[in-house]
Every structure is written in C-alpha cells, then in structure tokens.
Design goal:
4-stranded antiparallel sheet, alpha+beta, 23% helix
Length: 573
C-alpha cells in the first residue's frame, strides 16, 4: 500500500492500517511540503493531484500549513511556496550546528572508500586549520594532523573553501596573502590563482598536486551551509605515488558527496554528482568513438568544412581542441580561462565564449583579444554554449559558475561588436539553434530541464513569445547541447541520460539513440555531406567505478542518424 493510500485508509478506519494518532496527519503535511519544495508555484488542483489526497483533505492540510507559516500562497495566481517559517527554523538549526560531529561519519566512510587519510578543515584567518582527521591503515604516516595549519592557497582544503567565498571577501584575502613558493607547483601569481579558484568552483572540487609539500597531493570539496557559504572542507590527502592526477579527479565526486552529506545538501546547487543507470542492451554499431579524448567537459562541437576538422572545447581543462575524426588525431590549444564555445570568424581565426566575455582567438599565435564583456559586473558568472545565426550574429548564454539559479542571461553579439541582452533569469544556459526556415529559435535551460522555443525574426535578430518546447522528467537525463537538422527536428544530448534524443517540431520524441557514456554534452552535424552527427561527452565528477563502466567518457562520437544538418554560419564580425 502506498504511503498516502495508507493515510486515506486510516481516515476511513480500514483494518490493519492503524497508527499512532496524528502520525498520518504529520505524514500528509510532510508529503505536501516535499512536493512544494520540489516544484514551487503549483496551484491547489495540481498539488492535490500530485499528493494523491482527496480535495477536502488536501485543502485542510494546505490551510493548516499556511496558518503555521510553513507554506505561503501567492495571491496573484494562488500558487503555493515554502513559508518563511521554514527559513527561521533553518537558521536556528545552523546556529547550533556542530561541524565536527556532523562530519565524523563522513570522514570514516571516505577514509574506508579511498584508503587514504581524510581531514576536516576550516578557514582560520587566512590559513587552513585541520580540526579532525581519520588516518588510513597505510605504512606511510602523514604529518600535520589535527591542530596543524596549512596555507589556504596551496592546500586542497584551502582552495576548496576560497573558491566558494564571496568574490569580494576572496579578493580581500588574496590581496593579503604572501604567495610563497613551497614547491615548483605552488601558484604564486594572484591573477593565475584567481582563475584557478574559479575553475575549482566550476568543477566542484579542488586538486592540489604537490603544491604545499613535495610528494603529497590532495583533493577536497567545500562544506556549504544553508546560505551556500563555505564553513569547512573535507580533503583526501596522501602520497603522490598513490594519488596521481587521474585518481585525484576520480575521487572528486566522492569528496563532493561527503561534503554534501555533512551539511545535508543545505547550500548545494544543481551540480550533478550522480548518474542514471546505464540502459540495458549491447552498444550500438552505428555509434563510434572517433576522437578518443579524455576531456573533462567536452562541449561546443563545430564542423569546419574547409579543413574537414571538428573543433570543440574542454571547459574544465580550458582548451580549444582541433580534431580530425577521420584518423582520431587532435591538437589541444590551452586557453587562459574557462572556454565554453568556439566558432570560426569570417575574417579568419575564431570567436570564443569564455569566462569573462566573448573573445577573438588566433590559434596559431595563441593571441586572445576581448570583444565584449557584458557581464563584467558579475564576477561569479561565465559564458556557456554559443552559436551564430544565419546572418552571422553570435548568440550565447551565461550562468553562475556554481550554477546558482536565476543568474543566467542570453546575449546577442552583432558583427559591429555591439552586445545586447535578449532574455534573462535562466539557471544553466545551454544548447541553442534555429529551424531551417529561420522562424524558430531554440534555447536550453538545463537547470529547469527545459528547451524553450521562441519566435525568431532573422532580419532584425529579435526573439519573442518564449514557451516550453520540451520539459524532461526526472530520471531521463538533463537537456544539454542541441542541433537542428534539415527537416526541422531537434537533436538534444541528455547529460546523465546516456543518450541523444530527436524531437519533432511539436516537441514529441521521434527517437532515442543510446550512447556508451552517461554524460553526452552536445552535438553538431558534420562530415562531407553533413550527415554525421558528432557528439561530445564529459568525464567530470564521475567516480572510478563509473569511469570503469564508461571508459570512453570524454571522447567524441560519430552517429549515423539518416538525417542531415546545415553548415554553421561563421561570425560575421
């Protein structure tokens, strides 16, 4: 019997469904609060339907919760939201929060999982103070245990905390620090350190590869409170010969999970650390790994017909990658900051969407030149996916580096360098594209699991009448990058969904193609006749077990779909 069915049975006095008086009412209230927390803005009828309660019971319960301040009703549209009383209660919880006690079981669990020493750290003035530790049963013992201090900028735990501080507070700390070179790997340039901390925040965990001490490396994640403020960090630390770079990154997901468990996910945002189960059945023969890359976050594929090359980016090991799917070769061009999309320019070279703005890039010389920085006043934001419309205007979206809700915008860069804000309020701005007749514009907000559809005026470069084209349910992945074929069908990569999906112009699923990796990120048509769909993927925040199940994660795949795409238009500026 389902929980709510049992509650209803209690109301009717059904035999065998007797409980402690009041327990069933408490269950009803908690269930309704869970529903509103997961989907704020629902109206009464929707809430009653989702809860499975009768209309009368739902009405009584909602009224009681509203009277208690646990729910509130928006009088403008009669929708339900969590009440402010819950926030007051949350503050009282955090006033009494004991970090060491809360972290103790996670330290032990992570030690047993990693087989390495695990430490709990806090920021004390400008240094890291270790306040608890669990040692692994290894022959090598590490110094600097409980009560010891370490630099904030060269330790894994310190960098994890610094990365999640308010940008102004972090800047003040960095300006005070004397950046000493402990080892050849220590970061002693303030600008380079700031970029590294932004990368750490985007990745979700920090890595220290012999920065504090030769022969010792670590990986750490920040513990965030209900306001998303860093109150500490958990770090796995050990000898570098056991904790090489690959293993540190493979443990990144595990330390993130431990940090989130300590605080009950209180301040965490939608940065995924879990994946859906792999679809059953053998791998498809028409899905082939053509560029065996190990990109942390491969994105933004663009076919270059003159060179017969596929350009794409690695956001989290910042680079533009030029690849040849015919022989699997590729050349990595490191970038000075996070880079999320790249398109060719009509005058030569490339236009790239980077962390701090839209920039011209000359791969031969390595020169990077700023063109537009529309979000210069938002240091916590970065650009994400971007493409050009058929008139050569570049469109790109932004998001908060830590994926905080509502911080994303959609911009249009004109050939003359003018940059305009076209829409805003997005969670994770992502894949975009246009219908073959240029009457439709598609734009993805991965954070809301939606692909939006706009009316598009190709002559004026204007969008209007935003509505939902597709909204994905839980358990099927998250819509990421997309491509539109010559028939007007939309292909969307499903992050954490192991697949790409083709939607017809009405938003109905036409077909699903399973992939051998959980995190496909984007797709683009290419090849001599644009009949090959190239799909990029990611390996970031996948555990060692998950990578063993999907070892091709980070590669580029070629899929023969039977559909064709249109050439991408270069930036006209």
């Amino acid at each position: 019997m389902r929980r709510l069915d049992m509650v209803e049975a209690n109301e009717r006095g059904d035999e065998g469904a007797r409980e402690i008086p009041g327990a069933q009412a408490l269950r009803r209230g908690l269930s309704l609060l869970d529903i509103v927390a997961d989907k704020p803005g629902l109206r009464f009828t929707e809430l009653a339907d989702r809860s499975g309660l009768t209309r009368a019971t739902a009405h009584r319960m909602l009224s009681t919760l509203a009277e208690a301040g646990l729910l509130r009703v928006d009088e403008r549209d009669q929708s339900y939201h969590l009440g402010f009383r819950l926030f007051e209660m949350a503050h009282r919880v955090w006033d009494q929060f004991d970090l060491r006690s809360a972290a103790e079981p996670e330290l032990e669990r992570l030690r047993d999982l990693a087989g390495e020493t695990v430490r709990l750290a806090i920021l004390d003035e400008d240094e890291i103070l270790y306040v608890d530790q669990r040692e692994a049963a290894q022959t090598i013992r590490l110094g600097n245990g409980v009560g010891a201090r370490a630099s904030s900028y060269a330790s894994g735990a310190g960098k994890a905390i610094l990365a999640h501080l308010d940008p102004l507070i972090r800047e003040q700390i960095l300006n005070r620090l004397k950046l000493q070179r402990f080892t050849p790997n220590s970061i002693t340039d303030r600008a380079a350190l700031a970029q590294h901390l932004d990368l750490t925040k985007a990745r979700g965990y920090s890595v220290s590869l012999e920065e504090q001490q030769n022969g010792v490396s670590s990986v750490a994640a920040a513990i965030l409170d209900h306001r998303a403020h860093a109150i500490g960090a958990i770090a796995v630390i050990g000898p570098s010969y056991r904790l090489g770079l690959d293993r540190l990154h493979a443990l990144g997901r595990d330390v993130m999970e431990a940090a989130r468990r300590v605080s009950g996910n209180a301040g965490q945002v939608a940065m995924s650390i879990s994946i859906n189960p792999r679809p059953l059945g053998p791998d498809r023969e028409d899905v082939v790994s053509v560029v065996p890359s190990t990109a942390f976050l491969g994105e933004g594929p663009t076919w270059l017909p003159n060179e017969r090359k596929l350009a794409f980016v690695d956001i989290l090991a910042p680079a533009i990658i030029m690849s040849d799917p015919a022989d699997g070769s590729f050349q990595v061009h490191p970038m000075p900051e996070l880079v999320s999309a790249v398109v060719p320019r009509r005058r030569g070279g490339f236009l790239a969407a980077m962390q701090t703005g839209l920039k011209a890039v000359d791969l031969d010389s390595g020169k990077v030149t700023a063109i537009a920085s529309p979000e210069a006043g938002k240091p916590g934001n970065r650009f994400n996916d971007g493409k050009c419309d058929r008139r050569g205007r570049f469109w790109a979206g932004t998001l908060a580096i830590d994926t905080t809700r509502g911080h994303g915008g959609l911009y249009r860069l004109d050939p003359d360098g003018r940059c305009s804000l076209m829409d805003q309020g997005f969670h994770v701005s992502n894949g975009l594209g246009w219908s073959p007749d240029d009457r439709r514009f598609y734009f993805t907000d991965s954070g809301s699991r939606r692909i939006y559809l706009y009316d598009f005026d190709v002559e004026r470069g204007e969008i209007a009448n935003r509505r939902v084209f597709v909204e994905l349910a839980e358990g099927v992945g998250i819509p990421d990058g997309l491509a539109v074929d010559t028939e007007g069908f939309v292909w969307s990569a499903h992050w954490d969904g192991w697949c790409i999906t083709r939607y017809d112009p009405d938003g109905k699923v036409d077909r699903v193609i399973n992939l051998p990796v959980p995190r496909p990120t984007s797709c683009a048509f290419g090849g001599p006749d644009f009949s090959t769909l190239y799909v990029t993927s990611a390996r970031i925040r996948l555990s060692a077990h998950q990578l063993a199940e999907a070892p091709l994660s980070g590669s580029v795949f070629a899929v023969q779909t039977g559909a064709r795409g249109l050439p991408e238009t270069p930036f006209a500026g």
